[in-house]
Amino acid sequence: xxxxxxxxxxxxxxxxxxxxxxxxxxxxxxxxxxxxxxxxxxxxxxxxxxxxxxxxxxxxxxxxxxxxxxxxxxxxxxxxxxxxxxxxxxxxxxxxxxxxxxxxxxxxxxxxxxxxxxxxxxxxxxxxxxxxxxxxxxxxxxxxxxxxxxxxxxxxxxxxxxxxxxxxxxxxxxxxxxxxxxxxxxxxxxxxxxxxxxxxxxxxxxxxxxxxxxxxxxxxxxxxxxxxxxxxxxxxxxxxxxxxxxxxxxxxxxxxxxxxxxxxxxxxxxxxxxxxxxxxxxxxx
Length: 285
Hints:
CATH class of the domain at 194-284: Alpha Beta
Strand content: 15-25%
Shape: rod-shaped
CATH topology of the domain at 194-284: Rossmann fold
Coiled coil: 5-53
Distance between the termini: 180 Å
Number of helices: 4
Number of strands: 7
Keywords: Coiled coil, Hydrolase
Largest sheet: 3 strands, antiparallel
InterPro entries: P-loop_NTPase (IPR027417)
Helix content: 55-70%
Strand order of the largest sheet: 1-2-3
CATH architecture of the domain at 194-284: 3-Layer(aba) Sandwich
EC number: 3.6.3.27
Protein name: Rad50, putative
C-alpha cells in the first residue's frame, strides 16, 4: 500500500508539472497571440497608409495632368493669337510701306512741280530749262525700310528748245545758280511740308545773285507771302544786308516794319523800325 501511495503521489506531481508547463505554454501562446494581433493591426495601418499614399499619388497625378492640359491649352490659344497678331502686323507693315512709298512719290511730284514752276519764274538765263530732285532707291536699311539717295539735276537746253539733257547740278553750276536753286528748293519743301506750321528763314538769300534775279526772287517771295496771308502759323524770316532787296520786299508786300540789328560799343543791338524811315538808319522816329 505504501508503494502504491508513493507511486500515486509521484504521478500526481508529474501531472501537476505537466499542467504547470501547459499553463506556462498557454501564457506564452497568449502573449504570442497578443503580439501577433498587435503586429496585424500595425500591418493593417501600414496597408491603409500605403493605400492612402497610392490614392493621393494618383490624385496628384490626375491634378498635375489636368493642370498640364489646361496650361497646354492656354499656351496653344496664346500661340494662335500671337500668330494671328504677327500675320496682322505683317499685313499692316506691307500696307504702311506701300502707303509711305505712294506718299513719297506724291510729295516728290509736288515738290518737283513747285521747283520747276518757281525756277522758270525766277531764273533769267537761257541755258537751264528746269531743275528737279531725283530720288533713287538704293535698297533697304536695317529696319527693312527702303532707302533713297537724292540728287539735284538740271536740264540743259540743246540746239532745240525741246532737246533737253539731264546732268547733275553739283559741280556744274555757278555760285549764283547754286544759291538760287537752294532757295527755290527750300521754298518748295516749305510749301509741301509746312502747311500747318510754316516757319521759313532765309539768311542772305541774294548772295551771288545779280540784280535781275534779285528782283525775281523778291517777287516770288512776295507771291508766297500773299498765298499764305490767311495762314496764322506762317512766318517768313529774311536776314539781309541788301538794301535794294529789302526795298523790293517792302514795295511788294504790306509789311510796314522790320528789325534792324547793329553793333554799338562792342554789343549787338536790335531795334524795331518802320519802312517810312531811311533803311538802315540808326535813328528811331
